[in-house]
């Protein structure tokens, strides 16, 4: 049975991203203590960009053994790794290069390849990294996610076949705008992670945040983000004040 989401509200994006950095380090240290390895799947977007900058800063960089961290990606656009829209390019500039992460610890989705080939290649990469046996889903330590104002997460978009995929770990995705061709982890992979962390900021996300976290009669059918329900892991939503503005007030945070 999936766990109830842990909802945390923050006054602004800076407070949110600093809390996310603390959680990243906490999960990383725990994974390294337990298994001598930390598997983290990264996300694109402006809020993760700020998070990566914080993690690479002097105060935070000293708090984790980066030689034990393997970086993956939740999704990627079908663009070369140097393209301005590449999730890898952003993470490389803000996190990998400043921390001097060796290429052997960075596992990017090959956005320059045809999506089917890139998806198959990335599933093979995941199998090698996680040593999951046939019929078993991989278990990542941390999956970072954002959410679009259409409720999509990673490159799992409303009404697309990727939402109902039940066996594959990585599939092509199709965006209704921007770079249409994508490659994405499936819900099966995301929902078997130890920790899933949504980072959501901005007033334009508030209505969908409320519909995802507080489904009410008459709301549209489940958004992709609402289908993220880890089997046994933790599900956390870090929201700034604007993104949380339509949620029912609570004294939890």
Descriptive report:
By secondary structure, this protein is of the alpha/beta class. The protein has one domain (6-228): 3-Layer(aba) Sandwich (Rossmann fold), CATH 3.40.50. Helices cover 31% and strands 18% of the residues. It has 7 helices and 9 strands, in the order βαβααββααβββαβαβ. The strands form 2 sheets. Strands 1-9-8-5-2-3 form a 6-stranded parallel sheet. A 3-stranded antiparallel sheet has the order 4-7-6. The longest helix is centred in the first third of the chain and has 23 residues, at 13-35. The protein is globular, with a radius of gyration of 17 Å. The relative contact order is 0.18. It is an enzyme of class 3 (hydrolase). One of its GO terms (molecular function) is 6-phosphogluconolactonase activity. Belongs to the glucosamine/galactosamine-6-phosphate isomerase family. 6-phosphogluconolactonase subfamily. Its EC number is 3.1.1.31.
- What general outline do the C-alpha atoms trace? globular
- Under the CATH scheme, which class? Alpha Beta
Proportion of beta-strand residues: 15-25%
Count of helical regions: 7
Largest sheet: 6 strands, parallel
Secondary-structure-derived class? alpha/beta
Q: Which sequence of strands runs across the widest sheet? A: 1-9-8-5-2-3
The CATH topology annotation reads as Rossmann fold
Number of strands: 9
Order of helices and strands: EHEHHEEHHEEEHEHE
How many domains, as an integer?
1
Low-confidence stretches: none
What is the overall pLDDT average? 95
CATH architectural label: 3-Layer(aba) Sandwich
Helix content: 25-40%
Instruction: Give the C-alpha Rg.
Output: 17 Å
Distance between the termini: 25 Å
């Amino acid at each position: 049975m999936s766990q109830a989401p842990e909802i945390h509200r923050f006054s602004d994006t800076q407070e949110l991203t600093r809390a996310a950095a603390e959680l990243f380090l906490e999960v990383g240290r725990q994974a390294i203590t337990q298994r001598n390895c930390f598997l983290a799947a990264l996300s694109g977007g402006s809020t993760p960009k700020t998070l990566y900058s914080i993690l690479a800063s002097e105060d935070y960089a000293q708090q984790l053994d980066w030689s034990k961290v393997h970086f993956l990606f939740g999704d990627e656009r079908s663009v070369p790794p140097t393209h301005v829209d590449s999730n890898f390019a952003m993470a490389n500039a803000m996190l990998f290069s400043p921390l001097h992460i060796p290429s052997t610890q960075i596992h990017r989705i090959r956005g320059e390849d045809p999506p089917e080939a890139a998806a198959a290649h990335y599933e093979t990469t995941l199998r090698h990294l996680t040593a999951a046996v046939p019929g078993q889903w991989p278990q990542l330590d941390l999956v970072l996610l954002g959410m679009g104002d259409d409720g999509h997460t990673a490159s799992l978009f409303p009404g697309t076949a990727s939402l109902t995929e039940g066996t594959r770990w990585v599939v092509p995705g199709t965006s209704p705008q921007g770079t249409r061709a994508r490659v994405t982890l499936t819900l099966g992979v995301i929902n078997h992670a130890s920790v899933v962390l949504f980072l959501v900021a901005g007033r334009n996300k508030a209505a969908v945040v409320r519909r995802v976290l507080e489904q009410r009669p008459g709301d549209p059918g489940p958004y992709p983000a609402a289908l993220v329900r880890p089997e046994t892991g933790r599900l956390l939503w870090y929201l700034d004040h604007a993104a949380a503005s339509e949620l029912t007030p609570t004294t939890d945070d």
